[in-house]
Amino acid sequence: MKNSIILLVIVLMGIGVWYLLTQPIAAPKNVQNKALSTEKVDQQEAIELSVERQKNVVSKSKSVPKNITEKTTSQGKTITHFYDYGTYEKLEVNVLENRQLAKKMAQKPKTFKYVGKKPPKNWEVRFYNQFLQTREDENILDQLVAQFQQQAKYIGVTPVELAVAYVQGAIEYDFDKAEKTEFLLQYPYETIYRKKGVCADKTLLLSKLLTLMDYKHVLMEFPKANHMALGLKVPQKYDDFGSGYAFVETTDYANIGEIPKNYIQGIQIQEKPVLIPPKYNGKRTFIQMGDYEKRIKKQVEKYGDAFKYGTSKQKQIAITLKELEQKIESLEAKHDRNQCAESTVKTEVEFQACKALTNEINALIDSLNLNRRAFNAAKRKQ
Question: How confident is the model at residue 260 (pLDDT cuts 50, 70, 90)?
Answer without folding.
Answer: confident
